[in-house]
Design goal:
The structure holds two protein chains of two kinds. Chain A is an alpha+beta fold. Chain A contains 17 helices and 15 strands. In chain A, helix 6 packs antiparallel against helix 7 and helix 7 packs antiparallel against helix 8. Chain B has one domain. Classes of the chains: A alpha+beta, B mainly alpha.
Chain lengths: 554, 357
């Protein structure tokens, strides 16, 4: 266990000061636009690839978290939020302004594959064109949508009806020619194994997958825009529960809480941090249990006992969370500066229920190992299928269990500590198999680590002096962060790095609210895992990614 | 046994009710067939809507149907009405009439198999319709007609998922039929006959006596290795977990059944269940001594039914516990593993029987 920062494996890439970076980039930098979390370098829109590759190769910024796009009165802007997998506290933002009348910017896709989808989203919602992008189509909205909904001149009152005949025929590009021996298959949007409304455009050669292209956006609910029209203090917090709605609510809430608290400079009382940590880890157990359950469905078939067993265990955590927050899924329990209320009374009962659960958990995990991971057929199905090599995972910005299953030792709870994590004793789980099996194993082992964290939190909370139980800091009724302050902050959600970018515009509502969804980036790796494999492996790979469409589409 | 072969069901009917001549034989045969068919259909009626739910629920910590009638038993007529009352949706572009014939072939072929299965006695009645000299070959022939139905359904549905399911069914059946039959041949070497009554009769002797307990010479005890091979191939043959890949709901939706609804769906469902029971019947006859069991011969039918349901329970257990193998792995197991093992078993059996006899 390393509570201290991990020794940077790559000693050739030490931390750079902003000035060193500016010197490294030289003439590429045309200005500075620092964010609260990172120095920001303004560059010309035709030097994006050059800048990104210098930062990636010479300065070691190998993780493109997210691309944020936004429109100002006088310009468009794309921000590339870069980090290091070895040390995510080292961050840098590359700010690329684009012309107001002709918003064109060079694509970063050749440097970071993950930019592919992120730039498509920016194009779709804001309207910035990325020159050289291999596939600049809409991603969240229908192909026939008119206008870009987060741009300033967008007419929200204009009705938009995307009728079926107007849609491009999904078969069009794949029409059989004389030589071709392939079949086009639509998997989804309604299919037993797509975990929601996901559409996989699949090209098959017999049973083998030649190409698979995820088509997302069926569950797009304008979450970013809704957050932009809510006030910081109270109106935004309920939304995060609806992103990853598979009982990972508190983890999502923490993402917003962390970003907004750092933006408005709010200190959270230690007691509240412990409660948050405990609640968040309960959510992680619930989320991983469901991941295990649905993965078993995908691999075993739809009447597997594992599914119900895991759901039963999830139910027990769910009961604890219900006691804690009063809700079962949409918790709305965090507040800026703390949590909404203290532990339920009588406290002893809550503690003993929690301890009962923790005592029983090792037995359950053992049973899953007997039933699932040690089954030869299961191993035959999952080991060495859905391979995601670590460098590919990094290139796609994969995080969470998906990255850790590929041996990428990256966990924001340890590497960029928040809450009470750095005071507790636990381990980051990694597996080197890079396959479906490893990703499942990581989740199952993480459940045990989460249990360790909860146990320590319960110990702490039990002994907490009664007069020091402050659950919320003093936070002004209305928050108005200074105009043009920008921040990107991330937490370790159940699926990976869940980040929020907020630009304050001097009002009590965010000027731009951007969600970095781990599922969005993770799902992008599916073709890498699936191409060349069999249909059942695609299904297994998709299951092992553990996506929630509510978070992918937002 | 050593006595004269038991009187067959139709003969008993003709004799008891005094039906004379050829016409009487035909009528008696029809009545007997209807009785046996209905017994099997009654099993599936209990198995499909009720037992399957209850068993799966027990395996997965649930309760399942318990509101409709005692133990939820009235769910059987309720489900029947519900399924038959649904609209039959005929998708555009299906290849008729093969699309309509396919759901009839599956239950029909499986039911046909029961014509030669000796199901044992209940009182004076011997539930055995026909006992041709090649009965053992016939039953496998009937059972394998099922894959024709799956291919027809898969192809005629003009749906890509159905097509994939149909293709998988063929590949799977090819890979498993051969080991199944080769293993069954090793039993024939033991019994020296293809006649069903002969195979069952050969298993009634006592193999060994342990602590005063007679262990019968069931081929499962005589050659456990062949029994395991046969059981595995049988699971694949009837398409149950871990070999349910022609349907594989999480992969190819419902395979060849995808486009079927209402009565056609019921027919498929029914066919699958009859097929499971036929698989159980073949297993019972080949390896588990048919209707033999403790007690007088006149309650043999009950033992036979117990064996059928035990096999059904086994398939449901496998469904709750085992992951599904991938199609290429299945084929590999079939051609590279099972086929080799089954031939090894055959040669070994032949040598042993040759040396002993």
């Amino acid at each position: 266990m390393s509570l201290e920062r991990p020794d940077t494996v790559d000693d050739g890439v030490p931390a750079q000061t902003p000035d060193e970076l500016e010197a490294l980039l030289g003439d590429l930098v045309v200005g500075r636009d620092d964010h609260l979390n990172a120095p920001g370098f303004v560059i010309r829109p035709d030097t994006v690839q050059e800048t990104l590759s210098i930062l990636k190769e010479q300065a070691g910024y190998d993780h493109l978290s997210v691309v944020t796009a936004q429109e100002y009165e006088n310009r468009y802007e794309s921000i590339y939020h870069l980090k290091k997998y070895d040390d995510p506290t080292q961050e840098v933002s590359v700010v690329v302004p684009a012309d107001k009348d002709d918003p064109v910017s060079e694509t970063g896709e050749p440097v970071f594959r993950t930019a592919d989808w992120h730039e498509r989203e920016a194009y779709d919602l804001i309207g910035i064109e990325y020159e050289g992008h291999p596939d600049l189509r809409r991603i969240l909205l229908p192909e026939t949508w008119q206008g870009h909904p987060l741009s300033m001149d967008y007419d929200r009152d204009r009705p938009q009806i995307a009728t079926l005949p107007e849609h491009a025929n999904p078969l069009q590009d794949h029409h059989k020619d004389d030589e071709s021996d392939t079949m086009f298959l639509n998997i989804g949007p309604h299919h037993p194994a797509t975990h929601g409304v996901l559409h996989l455009k699949t090209v098959l050669d017999g049973e083998q997958v030649v190409d698979v292209e995820p088509d997302i956006g069926y569950l797009h609910r304008s979450e970013e825009q809704m957050a932009q029209s809510g006030t910081y203090r109270h109106q935004i917090m309920p939304y995060p529960d609806r992103w990853d709605y598979i009982s990972a609510g508190l983890l999502n809430e923490w993402a917003y809480a962390r970003a907004a608290e750092d933006l408005a400079d709010i200190e959270v009382p230690e007691y509240a941090q412990v409660i948050r940590t405990m609640g968040a880890e309960m959510c992680r157990i619930a989320a991983h249990m469901l991941a295990l359950a649905t993965f078993a469905l995908d691999v075993n078939g739809d009447f597997t006992a594992t599914f119900m067993y895991a759901i039963n265990d999830r139910e027990r955590v769910q009961d604890l969370l219900e006691d804690l927050t009063g809700q079962r899924l949409m918790f709305n329990y965090f507040r800026l500066g703390g949590v909404v209320w203290d532990l339920p009374e009588p406290r002893e009962e809550f503690f003993s229920k929690t301890r009962d659960f923790l005592d029983q958990l090792p037995e359950s995990v053992e049973e899953y190992h007997n039933l699932v991971t040690s089954n030869e057929i299961f191993q035959m199905r999952t080991i060495d299928t859905g391979i995601l090599p670590p460098d590919v995972a990094k290139n796609y910005g994969a995080t969470g269990p998906v990255a850790r299953g590929s041996g990428v030792d990256y966990d924001l709870r340890r590497d960029d500590p928040y809450g009470y994590y750095d005071e507790l004793d636990w381990d980051v789980v990694t597996e080197d198999g890079c396959d479906n099996f490893s990703r499942l194993l990581v989740r199952m082992r993480e459940v045990e680590e989460s249990a360790k964290i909860i146990e320590q939190c319960v110990d702490l909370l039990e002994d907490w002096p009664e007069d020091e139980r402050t659950i919320q800091a003093n936070v002004p009724r209305t928050l108005r962060p200074d105009d043009d302050t920008e921040i990107y902050r991330a937490v370790e959600g159940a699926k990976g790095e869940l980040g929020i970018y907020i630009r304050a515009d001097g009002t009590d509502k965010p000027g731009r609210f951007k969600i970095r969804s781990p599922c969005f980036s993770n799902l992008q790796t599916l073709p890498e895992m699936a191409n060349g494999e069999y249909i059942p492996d695609v299904i297994a790979a998709l299951g092992s990614l553990d996506i929630v469409l509510g978070e992918v589409d937002r | 046994m050593g006595t004269a072969p038991a009187q067959l069901f139709p003969e008993w009917l003709a004799e008891t009710f005094g039906l004379p001549g050829v016409l009487g034989e035909v009528v008696a045969a029809l009545i007997a067939a209807a009785v046996v068919g209905n017994i099997v259909l009654a099993f599936t009626g209990v198995a499909g809507p009720w037992a399957k739910r209850k068993i799966t629920a027990a395996f997965t910590d649930r309760i399942a149907v318990n509101r409709v009638g005692p133990f939820g038993l009235l769910i059987i007529p309720a489900s029947a009405v519900q399924l038959l009352a649904k609209e039959l949706i005929v998708p555009e572009g299906v290849d008729r009439p093969s699309w309509d014939i396919a759901p009839i072939i599956l239950p029909a072929s499986a039911l046909l198999g029961f014509a030669v299965i000796p199901m044992g006695r209940l009182g004076p009645i011997n539930f055995h319709l026909a006992d041709p000299e090649v009965g053992f070959a016939l039953v496998f022939a009937f059972a394998s007609i099922a894959s024709v139905s799956l291919v027809m359904a898969g192809y005629a549905s003009s749906n890509k998922y159905s097509l994939l399911g149909g293709l998988r069914a063929v590949a799977q059946n090819l890979a498993y039929e051969i080991p199944l039959i080769v293993t069954a041949m090793s039993v024939v070497i033991f019994s020296g006959t293809l006649q069903m009554s002969g195979i069952v009769g050969a298993q009634t002797e006592t193999l060994v006596t342990i602590a005063g307990l007679d262990i019968p010479a069931w081929y499962a005890f005589v050659n456990p290795f062949a029994f395991v091979l046969f059981l595995t191939a049988n699971l694949a043959e009837i398409g149950r977990n871990p070999f349910d890949i022609p349907e594989a709901p999480t992969e190819i939706v419902a395979g060849y059944q995808t486009e079927y609804s209402s009565a056609y769906f019921v027919l498929f469902y029914l066919g699958e269940f009859v097929h499971i029971f036929l698989g159980g019947a073949i297993l019972a006859v080949t390896f588990l001594g048919g209707a033999s069991g403790p007690g007088p011969e006149s309650i043999g039918f009950i033992w036979f039914v117990v064996k059928l349901w035990a096999f059904f329970l086994f398939t449901q257990w496998a469904r709750s516990a085992l992951p599904r193998v991938r199609i290429d792995q299945l084929i590999e197991i079939g051609w590279k593993g099972m086929l080799v093992l089954s031939f090894a078993n055959l040669v070994l059996t032949a040598v042993i029987v040759g040396v002993i006899a």
